[in-house]
């Protein structure tokens, strides 16, 4: 039986002079991994108005303690406002919420125009018709290239029976009854 440690020792060192990867090729290849889509929402403490952003890099981290993570671009102007709200909501979007996702992904101050929501236990926006919602607060941030990995502690959560919004190969879709993503 081989131990994990002995396998690690056999991994060759990465050469420092490898050619850089083409970012467009990386985006294309990683786009082959189907993901769900979330909207991270909070109340901007400066304006008392709802604010938010869309992301497809979301994951469960730990059950004990209850932690989740998502990634945001270092250039995001929305994340600092959501972070400042203290507690925020990660809304797992349903297949009917593609327009909501597109609206929250756009730049601008009017992201919540026409979007229906209700407050979480701490007051963060829970988007109507979300597949699920998770109220959380910042646990840690980790710089990672052109993004920040945000680890959050879960405080409240709820799920529904709706179908998820999926992002695959640069397009939104839904889980089909057959073999995969449709739309």
Could you explain the architecture of this structure?
By secondary structure, this protein is α+β, with helices and mostly antiparallel strands. It contains four helices and 13 strands. A hairpin with a 6-residue loop joins β2 (38-43) and β3. The protein is globular and about 50 Å long.
Properties at a glance:
single chain, 183 residues, alpha+beta, seven-stranded antiparallel β-sheet
Q: How do the strands and helices of this protein lay out in sequence?
A:
Layout: H1 4-9, H2 23-30, E1 35-36, E2 38-43, E3 50-55, E4 58-62, E5 67-73, H3 78-84, E6 87-92, H4 98-105, E7 117-119, E8 125-127, E9 132-144, E10 147-159, E11 165-168, E12 171-175, E13 181-182
Antiparallel strand pairs: 1-11, 2-3, 2-6, 4-5, 5-10, 6-9, 7-8, 9-10, 11-12, 12-13
Distance between the termini: 48 Å
Query: Proportion of β residues?
Result: 35-45%
The whole-number mean of residue pLDDT values reads 88
Strand order of the largest sheet: 3-2-6-9-10-5-4
**SSE string, helices as H and strands as E:** HHEEEEEHEHEEEEEEE
Apparent shape: globular
Q: Tally the helices.
A: 4
List segments where confidence is low: pLDDT < 50 over at least 5 consecutive residues: 1-8, 177-183
Look at the helices and sheets and give the structural class: alpha+beta
In this structure, how is the largest beta sheet organized? 7 strands, antiparallel
Helix content: 10-25%
Rg estimate, integer Å: 18 Å
Strand tally: 13
Task: Write a compact overview of the structure shown.
The protein is α+β, with helices and mostly antiparallel strands and 183 residues long. 16% of the residues lie in helices and 41% in strands.
């Amino acid at each position: 039986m081989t131990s994990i440690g002995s396998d690690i020792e056999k991994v060759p060192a990465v050469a420092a002079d490898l050619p850089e990867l083409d970012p467009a090729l990386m985006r294309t290849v990683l786009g082959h991994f189907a993901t769900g889509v979330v909207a991270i929402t909070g109340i901007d403490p400066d304006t008392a108005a709802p604010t938010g952003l869309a992301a497809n890099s979301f994951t469960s981290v730990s059950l004990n303690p209850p932690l989740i993570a998502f990634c945001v671009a270092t250039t995001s102007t929305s994340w600092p406002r959501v972070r400042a709200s203290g507690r925020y909501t990660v809304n797992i979007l349903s297949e009917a919420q593609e327009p909501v996702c597109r609206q929250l992904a756009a730049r601008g101050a009017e992201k919540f125009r026409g979007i229906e929501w209700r407050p979480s236990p701490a007051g963060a926006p829970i988007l109507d018709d979300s597949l699920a919602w998770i109220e959380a607060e910042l646990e840690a941030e980790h710089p990672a290239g052109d993004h920040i990995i945000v680890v959050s502690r879960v405080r409240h959560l709820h799920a529904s029976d709706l179908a998820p919004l999926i992002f695959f190969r640069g397009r939104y879709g839904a889980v089909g009854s057959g073999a995969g993503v449709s739309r």
